[in-house]
């Protein structure tokens, strides 16, 4: 029999249904093994297609003021990090390497400086009046089929994105358990700026900057995945918190660690989901990423890249 490659799910399903009509369970054990394999291929193909539908939302609206003169005339994500590539270009290139090609960028500060081709842009024109959570929801229409969101000012390895992709849970966050080591020489970025997570029984039960670090087991690395179901949970609860007249988070009141929901981070929304009883799962990583918040961070990331360690 000639070998045939099938890349279309409908073709695979058609073959599978045709063989089922034969009554394959009455045939040889070897034949049954082939049918079982075909069933698994169909399931895996469907799961893979769901992943391929996912968009990646990169939040790039902020000013990056801690880098001072470096970002006076250029948004931080556009700073060169490796061989003429900017931070965000390197991030997009890494995403392509794991098969994530549908890229969304939310821009704000000096938005006209962004000219990366083959991406979809959304605008946060009031970026000085809000924060990362509202920036993310500028691209709400891109969330429908599930999505990965990531900060634009970090450098990640391919392995980190692959781990996030492979995670089966509806809502999961990348977490660095060995976070303290990174802060040993990071004196321009204090540990009380770290977004720390507390983990119990493979679930995140708390996420905060304002916490006892000894009681928290890792740092959120700025990458999160929401399946289609997870995205629906996020969107519904965000609008309830943002718009419901009966909600305790009225405009001007604190929203978890934030002074208000308009000034909230993604981590504040994750904490809201935790308190509402939704399971949030960690995806543990071991280094392979650098957040670039200061000149010191920038030089550290460049050094790791030059040494081939990132």
UniProtKB/TrEMBL annotation:
Q: What is this protein called?
A: NTP transferase domain-containing protein
| The MobA-like NTP transferase domain, residue ranges | 56-171
Q: Which residues form a coiled coil?
A: 28-55
Q: Which CDD domains match?
A: PC_cytidylyltransferase (cd02523)
Q: Give the keywords, sorted.
A: Coiled coil, Nucleotidyltransferase, Transferase
Q: Which GO terms describe its molecular function?
A: UTP:glucose-1-phosphate uridylyltransferase activity
What InterPro entries would the database entry show? GlmU-like, MobA-like_NTP_Trfase, Nucleotide-diphossugar_trans
């Amino acid at each position: 029999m000639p070998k045939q490659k099938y890349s279309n799910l409908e073709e695979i399903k058609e073959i599978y249904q045709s063989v089922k009509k034969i009554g394959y369970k009455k045939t040889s054990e070897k034949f049954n093994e082939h049918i079982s394999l075909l069933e698994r291929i169909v399931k895996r193909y469907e799961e893979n297609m769901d992943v391929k539908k996912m968009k990646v939302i990169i939040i790039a609206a902020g000013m990056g003021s801690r880098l001072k003169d470096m970002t006076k005339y250029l948004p931080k994500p556009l700073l060169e990090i490796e061989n003429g590539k900017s931070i965000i270009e390197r991030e997009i290139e890494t995403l392509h390497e794991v098969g994530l090609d549908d890229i969304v960028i939310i821009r704000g500060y000096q938005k006209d400086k962004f000219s990366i081709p083959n991406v979809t842009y959304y605008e946060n024109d009031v970026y000085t009046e809000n924060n990362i959570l509202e920036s993310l929801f500028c691209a709400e229409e891109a969330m429908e089929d599930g999505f990965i969101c990531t900060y634009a000012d970090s450098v990640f390895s391919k392995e980190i994105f692959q781990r996030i992709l492979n995670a089966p849970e509806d809502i999961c966050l990348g977490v660095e358990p060995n976070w303290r080591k990174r802060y040993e020489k990071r004196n321009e970025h204090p540990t009380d700026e770290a977004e720390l997570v507390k983990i119990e029984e493979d679930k995140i039960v708390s996420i905060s900057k304002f916490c006892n670090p000894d009681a928290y087991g890792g740092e959120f690395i700025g990458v999160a995945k929401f399946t289609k179901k997870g995205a629906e949970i996020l969107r519904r609860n965000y609008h309830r918190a943002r718009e419901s007249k009966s909600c305790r988070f009225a405009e001007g009141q604190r929203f978890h660690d934030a002074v208000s929901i308009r000034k909230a981070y993604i981590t504040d929304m994750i904490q809201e989901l935790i308190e509402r009883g939704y399971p949030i799962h960690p995806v543990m990583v071991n280094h392979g990423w650098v957040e670039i918040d200061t000149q010191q961070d920038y030089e550290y990331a460049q050094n790791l890249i030059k040494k081939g360690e990132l």
